[in-house]
Design goal:
Layout lengths: L5 E10 L4 E8 L6 E8 L3 E8 L4 E8 L4 E5 L2 E3 L6 H13 L1 E2 L2 E8 L10 E11 L11 E6 L4 H6 L6 H15 L2
Parallel strand pairs: 4-10
Antiparallel strand pairs: 1-2, 2-3, 4-7, 5-6, 5-11, 8-10, 9-10
């Protein structure tokens, strides 16, 4: 049976504003061997699956420097300190798309990469989404909003037009909710 490892020490390595890196010295319970692990600590993240009253998904296109590509995604972002995941979801939807929604459902959360990261990504369904003003983009954002028929999502994923892993996970949670609300 696999057990948790014993934590021997923590050392903060670096702080980069949106995440920090720590080194944790741990001991394996079965072998007694020690090893340093590097963990990225970041705030919780959110994703929003916005659906308009006529059933269209509100998606965004934006440039992502990590892959040097423009991606097709759903709105999302970080949970600010003192903010709940749902409040962050409402804020990010409004800021990135100019849309607001009446009905909100928590679809669940995933661990983005538990080998390296300590945070969780929460996904919310925002139903009856409607335009509510102009987007209020952050300095590092340049976003185009587009409406997509939900029936096209599986093909967009298969054709690698949607490649963001957390967006694919969000659509899985959305699909499960649609099957069993």
């Amino acid at each position: 049976m696999i057990d948790s490892w014993d934590i021997l020490s923590h050392h903060d390595e670096a702080d980069y504003r949106i995440f920090s890196v720590r080194r944790t010295r741990m001991r394996a319970p079965h072998t007694g061997r020690e090893h340093d692990f590097y963990v990225i600590d970041a705030p919780a993240w959110i994703n929003v699956v916005p659906v308009t009253a006529d059933g269209q998904l509100v998606l965004i296109r934006q440039y992502r420097p990590g892959t040097d590509a423009v991606t097709l995604e759903i709105p999302g972002g970080m949970v600010d300190e003192g903010e709940t995941p749902e409040a962050a979801a409402r804020r990010e939807l409004r800021e990135e798309t100019g849309y607001a929604a009446e009905d909100w459902t928590d679809l669940g959360a995933v661990s983005p990469n538990p080998a390296l990261q300590s945070n969780r990504c929460h996904t919310f369904l925002a139903e009856n989404a409607r335009e509510d003003g102009a987007p209020e983009l952050d300095v590092g954002e340049d976003i185009e909003t587009t409406l997509i028929d939900p029936a096209k999502i599986p093909a967009l994923i298969t054709e690698e037009k949607i490649t963001h892993a957390l967006v694919v996970a969000a659509f899985y949670l959305y699909e499960q909710h649609q099957r069993d609300p």
